[in-house]
Design brief:
CATH class: Alpha Beta
CATH topology: Bifunctional nuclease domain
Helix content: 25-40%
Largest sheet: 7 strands, mixed
Shape: globular
Strand order of the largest sheet: 3-2-1-7-4-5-6
Radius of gyration: 15 Å
Number of strands: 7
CATH architecture: Roll
Strand content: 35-45%
Distance between the termini: 35 Å
Structural class: alpha+beta
Length: 139
């Protein structure tokens, strides 16, 4: 079996916010690393984490409503690649149908995937290859 395709469990550590970026800090037993994103992403994530009121529904609220309407939930997310400083992720959805369970895999931004994983309390993973390439995050 190809060791680079092995998935490694991650824990969400925190989101670090500035005016110009957000850094989503994830950790395995071996390493912490950060995924940088737009400041709005971090603000949205913080709203979900603190369960604060939103003036208007956000994109993740829309997705949550659509998933609920289609009897779907976020099964897991996997950060599958890292090229230069850009991370790539896959969102795995589980849909209960009458006589079976359907798994849907979608390419998505890691920041959106992590936010949805936090909303659904779903597991977060990355490939061994991503973990090895990721630059360690230092507090």
């Amino acid at each position: 079996m190809d060791e680079t395709l092995t998935i490694v469990p991650l824990q969400f550590e925190k989101v670090v916010q500035s005016r110009t970026y957000s850094c989503i800090v994830l950790a395995s037993d071996e390493k912490k690393f950060g995924i940088f994103s737009l400041p709005e992403t971090g603000k949205a994530m913080q709203r979900y984490l603190t369960e604060s009121q939103k003036e208007r529904p956000l994109t993740h609220d829309l997705l949550h409503a659509v998933f609920r309407g289609l009897d779907m939930k976020v099964k897991q997310i996997v950060i599958v690649d890292l090229q230069d400083t850009v991370y790539y992720a896959r969102l795995f959805l589980e849909q209960k149908l009458t006589d079976r369970i359907n798994i849907i895999e979608i390419d998505a931004r890691p920041s959106d995937c992590v936010t949805l994983a936090l909303i659904y309390k779903s597991p977060i993973y990355c490939t061994r290859d991503v973990l090895e390439k990721a630059i360690p995050y230092c507090d």
